[in-house]
Sequence to fold (828 residues):
Amino acid sequence: MTEAQGCGGDEVGGDFGGADEAGTRVHNRLTDSTVHGAVVQAGRADIVLRATEPVEPAVPVTVAPPLGLRDTSRPLRGRADALARLEAAAPAGDRLLVLCGMGGCGKTTLALELAARRTAAGCRVWWVEARNGPALEAALRAVARQAGAAAEELERGDTADVLWSHLDRLDAPWLLVVDNADDPALLDGPGALNAGTGWIRPATGAGTVLVTTRESTPATWGPAARLHPLQPLTGERLDAAARILRDHAPDTAGTEAEAHALAARLGGLPLALRLAGTYLTEAGRTPAPFRAPGTPTTYADYRRAWEDGPRGLDPAHVLPRTWAMSLDLLDQRGHAHARGLLELIASFADADLPYTLLLTPDRLTDAGPLAALDGPALWQHLTALAALGLIDLPDPAPDTLPVLRMHPLVRDASRTAGAGRTALRLLVVAALAEETGAPEDAEFGRVWRLLSPHVLDGFHRVDTGSLDDEDFLELTDAVDLAVRHLWVGGLLTQARAEYEAVLALERERVDDTHPDLLVTRRHFARVLRDLGEFEAARAELEEVLAIECERAGETHPGALNARHDLALVLAATGESEAARAAFEAVLAARRAAFGDAHPFTLATRHELAQILHDQGELAAARAEFEAILAVRDAASGRNHPGTLVTWHRLALVLRDLGEAEAARAEFEAILAARRGGLGEDAPESPADFAKIAQLLYDLGELEEARAAYELALANRKERSETHPDTLVIRHNLAVVRLTLGELEAALAELKAVVALERERWGDTHLAGLPARRSLALALLGAGERQAARAELEAILRIQHERLGEDHPYTRAAREDLAGARHVPEGTA
Fold:
């Protein structure tokens, strides 16, 4: 093809006017202009013609808002607050509103609702799609024409300036919606979006601009923009999510509760809710003989099918494609590892992820291509994922670990087997790292609160048969730590189930004398002990102790640990003399092996001092606790968790010695130390509040005692409503209410506590006797002398059998019963 045939540039020379045979207008100058239409050689050798190809027809567009997509029978749900903020924004001077959020969260639906309301109020509304550059530019040219721009103005190179000059001159209110602006670079046009010189700019006249986008980085939009983040309908708005589901599903799909459960599983994402409801409607319309086997037709069926894999429920792959578009955009922006990082994040549990413990360069050295990322690059990738709503990076609260969150459906769509293995390895390494600490240490409680659910989730999803012995044992070590966190938090039933699962696998892989198996069995016995299953715990520990002694001798640390734990079971079952003898033997061996200041030695000495306290040897117990406190204080300081526990026990002894003012001062000092050193959400703080409350009660300050107990109970219930410590606080609060004369409420609470403790401990356990005694005294106060006497007789019999005739608690029970015999039946 020659240059004269028109495939080259746009330079021609000389004069050439008129029109071609088809009537196409041709410029009458051939210098620095473009020829429209066919151009032929003019017969002169000194003229060279270069012409463009024939101009493409204009991109067909409409800028009318798609109000027909609104279905008034399915109103907007759960967005009243967001809609109100958008409607109030423009009068306040916010003229560039950016509605941002993850794909599928309902940005377009909300924008359409605003457009409908503005249209109904007489406002001029334009709706522009921003999915691709040519369509966007064509639509904005159309808006400019409708705003009054002449055709000649739009032929110049300053079309964006022309558009905004006409929009800003309009007197009547107007709204420009720019939908699906997920690639904000398309909005730059000839200038820069964030500088106010792009295709889209803040309105300065009577109008408002609303952009919907996944991009939530403020710097992208410039200082004049006001970002309005839109989240899925979760938490308090989950009811609205269930209503969306029911709006689109048939009445036969199930109950409101079942819709609520499915809405929760779908993470309150409006797109997923509409897809689910529509699917169930279509499935219900299909006659049964024509349905594929197992086709879900109810909310419950759909939820179960989703757990098996969402592919069959989303045949068009709408949800994965929604997020794939975001990843494609990140690829275009140079974030080459965004997809791999997202797949890795998706392999963790559906819980807050402490990413600074897991997704750091030193931890990702074996993570394939992600190992190439240094710290700044990792942070850029994380913030880029967050900017498009694929993850959430909330600002961390003071003194807390930063976490990230991921929508469950993004997780479902992004999980891969390879990334799952990498995630599990990262979890094991983090769990076993020295800086992660032990779950029993209060200062590491926040770490394990975040790490534990991910370790347990990874353990349940991995095929342990694919692991070699070393990796398997490291995994079970990490799981043991995670379950110990459950134990510390009072989640005993879950801890028991987890240990049973670990033991079953360990018994398949190692022999009965393997140290790891013995440690797991010993920790399992601790859980059984706290569950009140003392015989099972005792049998487990006696077996472990026998194996440890045969394997390595009676003074081996494993044997001493087992004997120490067995002594705790003996103490819990009231066998205080046997427990005391066991603790004395362990203490002697630990002193010989480790010295007086070793933590193991101090732990046994502490338990032995507690036995002295329980046996009424208060002076000896005081001396022991003071000595232990001095060692721990010198080694670790008063704010160390171990020191605080001993200090706490010493204050209890002071209280029981009758030194109430000294005890109160100690408890107040302990509380101040824990507030300053560990924060009020440390696991021991509820117990401190409870002890302060007890002292306030002893001093007759009943209202203050009630307030302190209520605070302790509120903190404790966040961990477990049926943990023994929680039941003790409930019992003591009921006693305060009884003393205040609130007999009916106190009696009801004491009956509830006694029932729960009987379920946990049985009828003859010493731990259940204090609440039974309080219930008996409350029954006596209510005039139910016969019932009260029966309780007191049972208490006396148990204490006589367990503690002996001369124990202080037995003597007190005898006095209670004697007093009850002198109260006439029916006397309050």
Observations:
- The longest strand covers residues 207-213.
- The chain has 34 helices and five strands.
